[in-house]
Amino acid sequence: MFEAGRRFARSAGAALRRGGLILVLAVTAGCAASPDTYRDPNMDFGSVQTVAVMPFVNLSKDQLANERVRDVFTTLLLGTGALYVVPQGEVARGITASSIAYAATPTPEEVVKFAKMTKVDAVITGVIREYGEVRSGTASSDVISVSMQMIEAQTGRVVWTASCTKGGIGFSDRLLGGGGRPLNDLTEKCLNEIITKLFE
């Protein structure tokens, strides 16, 4: 009887270990199945030398968020020295000359036409989902949430996408009522992370 009990304990332990392993694999697979970056495997990113950063879609409450984030992103991207970023004035003239209906979300045909006029290898567009202060009870904190994509000039197809969220109200903020990190710091950190994903 005692031996039977030991055999049962061993088999139960083995089953628990197998279950734990399956759970770990499932969680790992779940993480791998939902990346926040996409890269077209057929795209030669080394051929991209000149890019245009289009006006961003602004879904936040801050009416100037798109201009601020676009300006910081352009500066940081130029700072890498890896790409030439067309000045915003040139981009604006190209948008007008190409008759792009909505510059923040150009069609593939509009991108191809715009790229020929501005002589760029790719166009970058973006969406600002959140920007500024968020509140929950007595706690408040700054947050930024951005997604971007690169569109290849010759075909107008999306070859890269990435997203980033920084800030927000965490457990310590709710507990202590803290204000989190300054929005400028969060913006630079988030955009630098996106740029890093571009060059991975």
In short:
The protein has helices at 2-32, 65-79, 88-97, 108-118, 171-176, 183-198; strands at residues 37-39, 50-53, 57-58, 84-85, 122-136, 139-152, 158-167. Helices cover 44% and strands 25% of the residues.
Topology, pairings included?
Blueprint: H1 2-32, E1 37-39, E2 50-53, E3 57-58, H2 65-79, E4 84-85, H3 88-97, H4 108-118, E5 122-136, E6 139-152, E7 158-167, H5 171-176, H6 183-198
Parallel strand pairs: 2-4, 2-5, 3-5
Antiparallel strand pairs: 1-7, 5-6, 6-7
Helix pairs in contact: 2-6, 3-4
Stretches where pLDDT is under 50 for at least 5 consecutive residues are: 1-34, 171-175
Structural class category:
alpha/beta
SS summary, helix count: 6
Based on CA atoms alone, the radius of gyration comes out at: 23 Å
Which descriptor suits the 3D outline? Answer: globular
- How widely separated are the two ends? 61 Å
**What's the number of extended β-strand segments?**
7
H-E order: HEEEHEHHEEEHH
Mean pLDDT: 82
Helix amount, in percent? Answer: 40-55%
Largest sheet: 7 strands, mixed
Strand content: 25-35%
